[in-house]
Amino acid sequence: MIKFRTRLLAALLTLLILVFASLGFLLVHLFHSSYDAKLSSHIEKEAALVASLANGENMKSSEQGAILEKASRELDSRVSLIDTKGQVLFHFGGRAEEQSVIKEALESDLNGEGGGFRINPDDESVYRYVQPLKDDGNVNGYILISTPVDSLQDINQKIWILLGVSLGTAFLIIAGLGARITSQYTNPIESATQVAIELAKGNYKARTFNEDETMLSQSINMLAQNLQDMTRAQEMQRDRLQTVIENIDSGLILIDGKGYIHLVNRAYQKQFHVEADQLLYHFYHEVLEHEEIINLIEEIFMTETKVRKMFKLPIKIERRYFEVDGVPIIGINDEWKGIVLVFHDMTERKQLEEMRKDFVANVSHELKTPITSIKGFTETLLDGAMNERETLLQFLSIILKESSRLQTLIQDLLDLSKIEQQNFTLNIQNCNIGEILAEIEMLLKNKAEEKGITLTLEKPDKPAVASGDPHRLKQIFLNLVNNALTYTPEDGSVTISADVLEDAVQVKVRDTGIGIKQSEIPRIFERFYRIDKDRSRNSGGTGLGLAIVKHLVEAHQGEIDVESERGKGTEFTVRLKRASE
Ligand SMILES: Nc1ncnc2c1ncn2[C@@H]1O[C@H](COP(=O)(O)OP(=O)(O)O)[C@@H](O)[C@H]1O
Ligand SMILES: [Mg+2]
After folding, report:
1. Which of 1, 68, 162, 525 is deepest in the core (most CB within 10 A)?
2. Residues 539, 407: one domain?
3. Which N-terminal stretch is annotated as signal sequence (predicted)?
């Protein structure tokens, strides 16, 4: 690309050359013609003078010759006297004129007035003038004056040199100034052009630098700055939007007006176990695997209205519940831009709902059994059985047992609901775990003895002080030790031990009982879950004990673990925060 400045300068110089050349020619021509006119009028006058001096009557007189010779000398010209037939009578100041010249001279005086001529228009060195000699109106002969005009060419040359030098100097000065001025004016334009090119390429950091700040460079810099700010703001906004889209919990896909998928966020990929590449820029019909979703998209395409539907979709090995919101995107001018689908995974909420339903069913069932039993025995007694003292006693003790089961069940339910409440608080203080465990050993010693189980408490070597609610901690360990005694057959043993770790107090309740199957371990903390319902019921269990334990341990920000082997025994480990002494 030829630089703008070069082109401008070249145009300027061409114009200058043209103007100067035509000016030169015009000047030379003007000078030339005015000089020529002057010269010819001068010679004309000379010729007229010579003619007036000459004697028209006696052409050949010696007097005539003397006059002409003098005139030739004075005028420094060739003077010839010619008769009407073209015969040269006298000639002075050089050799005689050629015949062709004389012929021309006579021809050029057609009307007898005389006139100047040049033999050869290219040969400007001699100017000739012919003047008729008249006597009483008759032409007797001609005076022919030939003046050399070599000097005209000299002058011509000088004029050319002078013009050349002066115009050349002027040209150089103007060219120099022109170059300076154009560079001054074009520099900002060139640098602005450069910046504009950079901006077009997307480099918004480009700026122009000039000593003198022109409007152009100022505005181009402002434009660049604005573009930079705008793109930065846009990038920030895009990043923010991207972050939001990528990090929301709900799956999101965007389909354009033609049915091609343009966006798939991370949550969607996780929910449906797909990679973005599998979906992006594909036709939705070909890549979405659930018929229900395809139908939903079609419905939105047809009705152009929002649709919200609940689906149970098979994904890998499970079936998950999704609430899908489909929204048509309609731009300005009712332009159809596509569809956004948002997938809310409702599986957990659904499960929770099921759990709640199960819970109500379980509670009712648990309550029904003892009440039916109490009612049945009471009715039997009223029907007459109460008259037999032995039956009466037996039935009453059953009724007592069932009602105490009811009481424990209700107590456990109340406990559980209280613990699960949002505003459940613990009365946290420093608790001596050793003391609590000793108390529990005292409480359950009898039960262990009845079953022939050795209950051992291994006291910690250091004082084990944990921060917790003493009443609740007692509840935790009572439940665990009680379970250990319940699920351990006669002649077994149950060991309670406490250890002081660096920042925790660890309590273990170990038994040599029936153990728990590995697959059952995650389930035993569920409410009402019992591996062996009869055994649990016989021992007065409600199936809520471990659920309460787990909630309480979590409320203490502690941990609970179970290790068990079927037929060999079980070990529950509870770790509590050690109190800072
Ligand atoms: N030490 C243990 N040994 C074997 N099984 C246990 C032990 N502790 C709990 N389990 C099992 O976990 C189930 C749930 O315990 P829990 O919630 O305390 O209810 P339960 O009222 O039946 O004792 C029990 O029914 C029992 O099957
Ligand atoms: Mg229990």
Report:
1. 68
2. no
3. none
Q: Does residue 545 sit in the same domain as residue 572?
A: yes
Last residue of a domain, one of 313, 345, 377: 345
- Does 370 sit in the ligand 1 pocket, CB within 6 Å? no
**Pairing mode, if any, of strands 307-315 and 318-330?**
antiparallel
Which tokens go with 189?
Answer: 């334009």
Ligand 1: atom nearest CA of 511 is 1
**Pocket mutation for ligand 1, best pick of 546, 560, 570 (most atoms within 8 Å of C-beta):** 546
Which residue lies with its CA nearest to atom 7 of ligand 1?
483
Question: Whose CA is closest to 559, among 511, 504, 522?
Answer: 504
- Residue pair 168/176 in contact by the 8 Å Cβ criterion: no
pTM score over 0.90? no
Q: Residue 509 sits in which domain range?
A: 425-577
* Residues 441-498 pLDDT 10s: 999 999 999 999 999 999 888 889 999 999 999 999 999 999 999 999 999 999 999 9
Assigned domain for 12 exists: yes
- Do 468 and 407 lie in one domain? The reply is no
pLDDT higher than 60, residue 122: no
Domain match, 446 and 367 both: no
Decide: 506 in ligand 1 pocket, CB within 6 A: no
Domain count, the chain: 4
* Closest residue by CA, ligand 1 atom 19: 543
Evaluate: CB of 541 within 6 angstroms of ligand 1.
yes
564: β partners: 570
Regarding the beta carbon of 482 and ligand 1, being less than 6 Å apart is answered no
Atom 24, ligand 1: which residue's CA is nearest?
Answer: 530
Could you read off the pLDDT of 251-302 as tens digits, one per residue? Answer: 999 999 999 999 999 999 999 999 999 999 999 999 999 999 999 999 999 9
Q: Which ligand is nearest to the CA of 542?
A: 1
Helix or strand run (H / E) with residue 559: strand 559-565
> pLDDT tens digit string along 123-164?
566 777 888 877 777 777 888 888 776 666 677 788 888 888
The predicted pLDDT at position 557 comes to 93
Taking the CA of residue 548 as reference, the ligand 1 atom at the shortest distance is: 17
Measured between its terminal Cα atoms, the distance across the chain in Å is 85
C-alpha 530 – ligand 1 centre gap (Å): 6
